[in-house]
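In this section we walk through a basic example: taking a raw amino acid sequence and producing a predicted 3D structure, encoded as discrete structure tokens. The instruction is simple. Fold the sequence below.
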Amino acid sequence: MSTEQETLKNPETNNSNSKNPVRKLTHILLILIGVFMLWYVLSDRYTPYTDQGIIRGVSIPIHPRVSGYITKIHVGLHSQVKQGDTLFELDVRPFVLAVQSAEAQLDNTLQQVGAQTATVKAATGQLGVARAQLDRAQRNYYRVQQVLEENPGALSLADKDKAETSLASAVEKVTAAEANLEKAQQQLGISGEENAQYRAAQVALEKAQLDLQFTTVLAPADGAIESFNVDLGYYSQAGQALAMFVSNADFWIEAGLKENNLSRMEIGQEVEYNLDIAPGKVFKGTVRSIGFGVQSGEVNRNQLPAPSEKKGWLRDPQRFPVIIAFQPGDLSNQIRLGGQADVTVYTGGNFILDAVARFRIRASAFLSYLR
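The resulting token sequence is shown next.
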């Protein structure tokens, strides 16, 4: 019997082959897998997504610039503060005494400078007298010399010796007066406010006054206080952190995106993200900056290089930080440093991929309720 005749006699077999649900399901699954793989590859370039987003911000350790005992505390853990608010105060008494001592030292310096100025004036006067005496001794010596030349017997040799001695003594007095004046001027230095002794005393006073101001520790900006666990009577060392200040000035999302996500990414592109702190909501932002590098394994000079090991049959993707800027007013009172975020970047160019990405980020936002 021929094959054609068998087929005609068994139509059910032919029907079952053409309508085999397993084969159809297999074809559908293969098509879906192919579509998914195509979407996955394209979405990585056109609408990159990551769930490795972290909220970052500016945190500043709060520490006094001078040492002392804490006498007043105006804030507590998680307190909200404004720029210039007083956080805590140190014992001011040692610093008040230091200011008073510096003021007394400045007054004493002014007196010393005044006395040295008077010494310079006196030395200047003495030099003038010595020069006048030298001028008189020179004239007297010249007269004696002239008389002896005209009439050698008119004066004795004693008169001549006396004139020479007076002239030499006058020269020595001028030299001594000039030395005394130079010494007095060196001790005084520059007169007025440029005097070195006065400036040193003035700087010491200003430092003492500044240290007194530093006994009051102020908030550097608007923000909140973290990790504050000291109490009255605690001795604070200068430069020792007493609390951590979280500034409200700037927050951003640091999204860890894979290396192949960056090929079409540019600063200023549209971003949508959702935060665990606000489940069910999607917010808009922009790409502020894209990281230029990340830390990788380094080779020490005294060691051999250690090759990195793969954990699977595909190489682990390298991730780079992409900074996402918040829009003004977005959750300004709810943002917390270290909060998690899901991020999608729209690099533009495909309506279908954008639509799928918008659906995915919204689905992720609702899944935040379950986290």
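Looking at the output, two observations stand out. Residues 41 and 260 are 10 Å apart (CA to CA). The helical segments are 3-9, 11-18, 21-46, 93-150, 157-188, 196-213, 351-367. In the next section we compare this with other chains.
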